[in-house]
Write a structure and sequence with these properties.
Blueprint lengths: L10 H16 L6 E3 L4 E3 L1 H9 L2 H10 L4 H15 L2 E5 L10 H4 L11 H15 L4 E3 L10 H17 L2 E5 L20 H6 L4 E4 L18 H11 L3 H5 L8 H7 L10 H4 L17 H16 L22
Parallel strand pairs: 3-4, 3-5, 5-6
Antiparallel strand pairs: 1-2, 1-4
Helix pairs in contact: 1-2, 1-4, 3-4
Protein name: Heterokaryon incompatibility domain-containing protein
InterPro entries: HET
Organism: Pisolithus tinctorius Marx 270
Amino acid sequence: MVSSDASSITLFDVKQVIRNVAFETLKTTPTRLLYTPTGILCSRDVQVSHFMNSQRCKRLVSLCTTRSRDQQMDLIRTDVPKHFQYATLSHRWDEDAEPSLRDIEGRPIYGMSAKGGFGKLQAFCRVALEWGYLWAWSDTCCIDKHSSAEVQETIGSMFAWYRQSALTIIYLADVSDTGSFECSEWFKRGWTLQELLAPKRILFYTQNWSLYRNLSSLNHKTDVAVLEELMMATGIESRFLSDFYPGMDDARSRLQWSSLCRTTRPEDIAYSLFGIFNLHLPVLYGESAEKALGRLLGEIISQSGDVSVLDWVGEVSPFHSCFPAH
């Protein structure tokens, strides 16, 4: 309810507007996020509740009492999203040790054993907090993998989630503090390709959670030396590494980038490219890798008209004789 005074909003209305803007902000973020100070997994409702009870929200409400209506709205729409900035984790999975949603739900992760993936998750949240982010997302435990609808939504949204993250922390478990990341297995995995291209800001961390080469750069995508190494490791031009946009442009190159990547689930080699091509296709776990790739290639040709993607060598796909099997 807007007050009769068109130039201002009542205290009650200010809080309601703040709440509405908070939910509006969270519509495009991951469904669940880890609260880095405590390590507790929070739903969107809990995230909003946390903000509404925070000192930051109280300061915002106080500032709004001295502003005009337009100034109040500008202030709210500027300040609220800052609270919900989050960091994302990119890493190689250890299938036997990664914590799931059910492992951490309702429990602070810092109180758990630091073995295996739990230690990695704890370190990630601590690093995110050190960079000033209250919220963090990891694909291992922030998704209900028993819900097919949620898995479909996640795969369809993951590129956007990494793109709008304030920071993506890339953990290279097989790179020592003095090592080079060119030989890391991280660069050979299917899902990590979009996790490299989508974020606007990334930082590489080595196995002991030290910044790669102790570089002081705030963004490794803007570090000339790191970009040179990334080009050598991936074969991707620097212009794509530093400023990538999803879509059909140069579709052939995008397929070539992923040609040597591997995924645990064969179908994922196609699903992991949906975001890179800005495609929203059904995720059908259990289908063959050839069928998943065939659906992807068919859609790329249909939308782009680029038949150069049919210029390939190797085994013929049973899905269509014009398509490669791999």
